[in-house]
Design goal:
Helices cover about 65% and strands about 0% of the residues.
Length: about 350
């Protein structure tokens, strides 16, 4: 059965991916803007980061919203994702070796066949764990009424988010790069689908998103919190993700073009985070010329959109080429499917 794609949510996926590319533009070890910019530029970049830092949270909320009613997950989906990662990184390594950009090493070649070995794919590793848990999580969540579910959300938010946001001695820690944060966000997405009636207009939710993003920025100047406000589990980042999701939930749009572009978001994710390309793409974009330029935000947006569009085109072409081949053995992997 083909799953219906809601263009408003698919458009949000696209925007979230562009936000992530922009976050890496700002990252001190990638695009370098946060490390090298000074004065007004530094605070402008910090403010934009405060608005965009919720992007990863947004993806997991979408997952919870779209998957809460699933009773079974398909292992062949995971296999296909792994193959995508392997194929892209092997091809990228070969191309860069041939054009003299990198040296060929057996270790790197082998690592390409174990994609979770690459630190840049931390999201993929945790997402796979979450994906495997979906039927079990759904079994518990769907057995609850609205009020029990709400109590669970309150406990999870306090334990996994609020405490670690403001108390120096952490319960969970890990900056939100953890399965606990993903489970919290998944449960929130599921609650929005099952029990929440979104009655407010999109502009109200968007305004709230800006408020919570601004609070994240303000926390930079609060000594006890400081840069901890850019952790994924930070309460304002979770709330801003919820608000942006609800804003797009109120948008009515049907577009096959949007759906097509959004279907390549994971391909863009793989290409963008490839260990061979992650820093290279920002060097090509010459981000160093704009760290202290008055055009830094314009350059950041243009660079992020250009990277997204380039990798989208590559992924669409890849899918068209692969559609000529029949990988029946993958589609027949059913004995390992998890069903509750």
């Amino acid at each position: 059965m083909k799953v219906k794609r809601y263009s408003n949510i698919e458009l949000l996926r696209i925007i979230l991916m562009i936000m992530i590319i922009s976050l890496h533009y700002m990252n001190g070890g990638m695009g370098g803007a946060l490390k090298e910019s000074t004065g007004v530029n530094y605070y402008m970049v910090r403010f934009v980061e405060s608005l965009f830092i919720m992007a990863v949270n947004g993806f997991i909320i979408i997952t919870g919203y779209c998957s809460i009613n699933k009773q079974m997950i398909n292992i062949n989906k995971i296999v296909k994702l792994f193959l995508e990662l392997i194929i892209y990184n092997v091809i990228i390594q070969i191309i860069l070796v041939l054009i003299g950009q990198i040296q060929f090493t057996i270790k790197d070649f082998i690592k390409n066949f174990i994609p979770i070995w690459h630190n840049s794919y931390w999201f993929f590793k945790i997402y796979i764990v979450l994906y495997l848990l979906i039927p079990f999580i759904n079994c518990g969540l769907n057995s609850m009424d609205k009020y029990r579910y709400r109590k669970l959300i309150i406990i999870l938010i306090f334990t996994f988010s609020i405490w670690d946001s403001f108390v120096p001695v952490k319960i969970i820690g890990g900056n939100g790069y953890s399965i606990t944060n993903f489970i919290l966000l998944y449960c929130i997405g599921g609650y929005l689908r099952l029990h929440y009636q979104n009655k407010k207009e999109a502009k109200v939710w968007f305004f709230r998103y800006l408020i919570f993003g601004s609070l994240t920025f303000i926390c930079l100047f609060v000594p006890i919190i400081k840069e901890g406000s850019w952790n994924y589990y930070f309460i304002f980042n979770i709330l801003s993700a919820v608000c942006l999701f609800n804003a797009f939930d109120k948008i009515t749009i049907e577009s096959n073009f949007v759906n097509l572009i959004a279907s390549s978001v994971f391909g863009v994710f793989i290409l963008h985070l490839s260990p061979y390309l992650l820093n290279l793409q920002y060097k090509i974009a010459r981000t160093d010329l704009f760290w202290n330029s008055k055009f830094i935000l314009i350059h950041m947006v243009m660079t992020s959109i250009a990277i997204f569009l380039l990798f989208t085109i590559i992924d669409i072409l890849r899918k068209k080429i692969f559609s000529m081949f029949k990988f029946k053995f993958i589609n027949n992997i059913k004995m390992l499917n998890i069903e509750i």
